[in-house]
Amino acid sequence: MPSTLDKTIGGSASNTYVDTVDGDAYFDNRLDAAKWNGAVAADKQRALLMAAKLLQLENWLGEKVATTQALAWPRIGVPKLDGISFGYSDSAYGYGYGYGYGSYYAGEIYLTTEIPQQVKDAQCELALDLLSGQTTVGGAPQIESFSLDNLSVKLSSAGSGSQDSKATLMIATLVRGNEIVRG
Fold first, then answer.
1. Are the C-beta atoms of residues 5 and 19 closer than 8 Å to each other?
2. Which residues constitute the domain of residue 80?
3. Which of 45, 92, 144, 168 could be bridged to 2 by S-S, CB 3.0 to 4.6 A?
């Protein structure tokens, strides 16, 4: 049996944002969830644990609330996409200044006790992809060729190791874009 799922927000032993009950509820409202619905409880747990580990690799906006928390969320200073914009800062109510596309954002931010629903949904989607064999772990593509002046990189297709586009789209407003800096 896999590790016990611990979804304590900000916990030092937390290893997931959702448990199998949350996953079952999510997939009750989703088409094409046969792999999830047909999986045994232990495989669902394993898939959720691995999906949470994949989410840890993201370049999230904001900062962790505490250095002792095991997972990337909750975070400080991450704006809500459809948050209400106010002209003042009141962190007790989740309003204030946070990170937003290279400049400061005045508006509603995620509370330090809150995990965005899209993070939870993305974990479920990644778990389904792992169960379906659409997302692989540990098979990162290798660089086949690289050139510098016009920057062309060719990667092998063996073992994608990448996240499913549904999960990536779900969390797109919560992550920073990676940048290549030319010196």
1. yes
2. 75-111
3. 45
Q: What is the pLDDT of residues 18-67, one digit of tens each?
A: 999 999 999 999 899 999 999 999 999 999 999 999 999 999 999 999 99
Structure-token match 């949470």, residue found: 52
Per-residue pLDDT tens digits for 136-180 = 555 555 555 666 676 766 655 544 444 447 899 999 999 987 555
Q: How many residues does the chain have?
A: 183
Asked if 73 and 17 touch (Cβ cutoff 8 Å), the reply is yes
Domain tally, the chain: 2
Among 64, 85, 111, the domain boundary falls at 111
Q: Do 134 and 64 share a structural domain?
A: yes
Distance of CA 111 to the CA centre of its chain: 17
**Contact predicate 89/147, CB 8 Å:** no
Q: Which residues, at least 6 apart from 67, have a Cβ–Cβ distance to it below 8 Å?
A: none
